[in-house]
Write a structure and sequence with these properties.
The chain is an alpha/beta fold and 536 residues long. It is built from 22 helices and 10 strands. Helices cover 42% and strands 9% of the residues. Strand 3, helix 3 and strand 4 form a beta-alpha-beta unit. The protein is elongated. The two termini are 44 Å apart.
């Protein structure tokens, strides 16, 4: 039990030409930490092809056993890979591709015996920009099946969906999917038939007209068939993924036999029991989109819970169970910005915790990055404070650095700085909620010396964390000034020498500007030399 300090390796694509030889693969990247005073490296995975490096298993074994370096892996991110897994996608083909990539990264990380594999919890476009994204109609449920399968199993859900303007308006072929139009069309069709019968000689009373209930039933049937036909096409529309998110939201909200109990609880944990039928709640995306995003993540872990076991996904849990030593899988608070700060699909540490709680696996946890949270317009302290008392037990990895809201800054943590205190306060809050065993990573930035004093600062932080010293009780040593040291003594002496300065000119007794030695030096004309050396 305890804290492990490490640094991130950096990536091949970002370093100078002179340094590229040091970043050509996982073994090379592993060495970065040993020159920074620690023996743990977070390896930034740029492509799954890095797992195909010749003799990779032997090379990584040498890194562990001969060099004594341990490591975890940071999974692909959009900044340097177009194929990163989007585990929150409701687009069927994207779900399948992302799941395959997800499994490949787990298997590769397991092969090289990483301590953990980390993913950003959400890397898809924020919900508020979906309206401008041209997307396919082939949507899926949380298990990667056609969304139509979930609707067929839950007829109440389909009947609810076709009555919602905010769903129908998203889809193409609105004319065929709109209930109001369908009712009018069915009624007009029967009236036209009746007129034709009258022209043929039938009396009006001889013509059997459908009841209002029969007309409604036929209109509903028509729209349902149009929905299924639309979802089975390769047609496109703007932001069609929103339809799946709205439908899954209603499904989670209502619960019931078809919805896993964990997902109904997840909805209540994140939304506080809100209703997607409430326009004010629905339009505030950050209040409910994280719950649906978390549900899509959950679906990647539980293909066996899919009705009729039709999920196209591979179960990752047995892969994790076979890792030796046990490899942890962690989901990190992602970066934001570009105007979509509040609508990142899953950005709060508290929401990621509730997702991990629903997944309910001992090797799956949370990674907290305060810089990322600030970039998403989230106050890390308030969010951590809102987490349950034992939530820290699921925080396996911490990314720390100067608390810059414009990510990714990855600025160093100077000893004695406000940044050092802020990082301590964040870690202290999580420790009070049970985070007693975590890997603390300083993610390097750029420049000739990207780490600087950060490792020294983190060693000091960990020392006082493990001593359970509250932030307001930190001693001078925490700030790099050991009690009794020359820096501290000089400052104390200077303070004492000038303690009575505010009283100058106010005393009726003769004033002395110098002590015994100072007066003697003044008498000999050596006052300037004495002033320069008096603190030595």
């Amino acid at each position: 039990m305890g804290y492990t300090i490490g640094v991130s390796s950096g990536i091949f694509r970002a370093v100078s030409e002179e340094q590229k030889g040091e970043y050509v693969g996982l073994p090379s990247k592993s060495m970065f930490s040993m020159f920074k005073g620690v023996m743990f490296t977070q390896l930034d995975l740029e492509s799954i092809s890095e797992f195909k490096e010749p003799n990779i298993e032997k090379k990584m074994k040498d890194v562990r056993e001969k060099m004594g370096i341990q490591y975890g892996l940071h999974g692909e991110v959009p900044e340097y890979s177009d194929a990163f897994p989007k585990l929150d996608s409701a687009l069927m083909e994207e779900w399948k591709r992302s799941h395959a990539r997800f499994i490949a990264e787990i298997e590769g990380s397991s092969m090289v015996k990483a301590k953990y594999l980390l993913f950003h919890a959400s890397t898809s476009d924020p919900f508020f920009v979906m309206w401008r994204e041209f997307q396919t109609m082939r949507l899926c449920d949380i298990w990667g099946r056609p969304l139509a399968d979930l609707l067929k199993e839950n007829d109440w859900l389909l009947e609810w969906a076709i009555e919602q303007e905010f769903i129908v308006s998203v889809l193409e072929h609105r004319r065929y999917l709109d209930m109001g139009h369908a009712r009018a069309e069915v009624g007009a069709r029967y009236e036209k038939t009746a007129e034709e019968e009258i022209r043929k000689g039938k009396k009006p009373e001889e013509i059997k007209m459908p009841t209002k209930e029969e007309l409604e039933e036929e209109a509903v049937k028509q729209v349902k068939e149009a929905v299924f036909a639309t979802l089975a096409t390769d047609d496109t529309g703007y932001g069609t993924e929103r339809v799946a998110y709205y439908i899954i939201a209603k499904w989670m909200q209502n619960g019931g036999k078809s919805c896993p109990a964990e997902l109904h609880t997840l909805w209540n944990d994140i939304t506080g029991g809100g209703s997607i039928d409430d326009p004010k709640f629905r339009d505030k995306y950050e209040s409910w989109v994280p719950a649906v995003t978390a549900a899509y993540h959950w679906g990647h872990f539980y293909p066996e819970r899919c009705p009729n076991r039709k999920s196209p996904g591979t179960d990752p849990k047995p892969i994790l169970a076979k890792t030796d030593p046990k490899m942890k899988l962690v989901f990190e608070t992602p970066m934001a910005g570009k105007g979509g700060e509040e609508t990142v699909r899953l950005a709060k540490a508290s929401h990621i915790y509730y997702m991990v709680k629903a997944i309910n696996h001992p090797l799956i946890g949370v990674a907290v990055d305060a810089e990322h949270m600030l970039s998403a317009n989230i106050d890390p302290k308030k969010d951590i404070e809102s987490m349950p008392y034992n939530a820290g037990e699921k925080v396996f990895v911490m990314h720390v650095g100067y608390p810059a809201p414009l990510a990714p800054a990855h600025l160093p943590i100077p000893v004695g700085s406000e940044a050092q205190v802020y990082v301590y306060e964040i870690l202290w809050m999580l420790r009070k909620k049970g985070m007693k065993d975590a890997i603390i990573i300083f993610e390097r930035g750029g420049g000739q010396e990207p780490v600087k004093e950060s490792i020294l600062s983190l060693r000091i932080i960990v020392k006082y964390l493990e001593m359970d010293v509250p932030p307001d009780k930190l001693p001078e040593e925490f700030f790099g000034m050991p009690r009794g040291g020359p820096e501290f003594s000089r400052q104390v002496l200077s303070v004492r020498d000038h303690a009575l300065d505010p009283l100058k000119g106010l005393l009726t007794v003769p004033e002395e500007d110098y002590g015994f030695l100072g007066t003697a030096a003044q008498a000999k004309g050596k006052l300037e030399e004495w002033s320069k050396r008096k603190l030595k």
